[in-house]
Amino acid sequence: MSFNFWGSSVAAGNIISATIPEDCALMLTHLSLSKTKPADRCELELLIQQAGDEEQTFTLATLSHENPQHSLQVQIPPSAKVQFKANGAGTINLIGLLEEDNADDFDDYDDEDMEGMEGMEGPDGDDDDEEDEEEEEEEEEEKMPEEPKPKAKAPKKPKKAPAPPKAEKPAAEKPAAEKPAAKAPAKKGGKAPAEKPVAPAAAGKKAPKKKQP
Question: How far apart are CA 16 and CA 85, in angstroms?
């Protein structure tokens, strides 16, 4: 689509006509009033007739010596018949753009030319493809959920060293053998009575019972 400048002017009390081409649309963008006196005012009307419709009249703007400019955006469709009428004093200048549709220009290319353009690649075409693939792989890796990291195991408590064996208590000392009682000293001048030896009982014979008195 291309844009071309369009401009015209209409003096107060006059009407100008314009026919929009079939492949263009008119976009009015700016109006200005000139050749006025301090008390002058001027009104601009648009008369438009589209294919199959009746003529319609619209007021676009009212300009004055104090407000001589006005911006707008009014698009007039292709093939429309338009008229601009100024009422009041002064001259109204119209500025706009013709929007031309260049879609038909592509019809000049045949299918072979289009296929040739599709097959064209720059000197770094392969490198660009590889870079695109690498970027896609990186994006996929970023989307993948991260694997949970294994939790660090708490350090094992050191085993207690075995208790040393208890020392055995020393055996109680046996009491010293009692010493035999000291014998009474013999009386002076006499001999100590000799102990009578007890005769052992004869084997197989019982000792005779003593008679009770």
Answer: 7
Which two tokens mark 144?
């993948």
**Burial of residue 170, with CB atoms counted within 10 A of its CB: 0-12 exposed, 13-18 middle, 19 or more buried:** exposed
Phi-psi region of 22 (alpha: psi -120 to 50; beta: other; left: phi over 0): alpha
**Tokens found for residue 65:** 């010596």
First CA to last CA distance, the chain: 168
Gap between the Cα atoms of 85 and 15, Å rounded:
4
Instruction: Name 93's bridge partners.
Output: 9, 32
Q: Is 112 helix (H, G, I), strand (E, B) or coil?
A: helix
**127: Cβ contacts below 8 Å, ≥ 6 apart:** none
Locate tokens 């220009």: which residue?
Answer: 105
How would you label 71-103 residue by residue, b for 16+ Cβ within 10 Å and e otherwise?
eeeeebebebebbbbbebbbbbbbebbbbeeee
Stated pTM of the model: 0.48
| pLDDT tens readout for residues 65-116 | 999 999 999 999 988 999 999 999 999 999 999 998 765 555 554 555 555 5
Is a pLDDT exceeding 50 seen at residue 204?
no
Coil, helix or strand at residue 125: helix
Query: Each residue of 144-192: pLDDT tens digit?
Result: 666 666 666 666 666 666 666 665 555 555 555 555 555 555 545 445 4
For residues 132 and 69, the answer to whether their CB atoms sit within 8 Å is: no
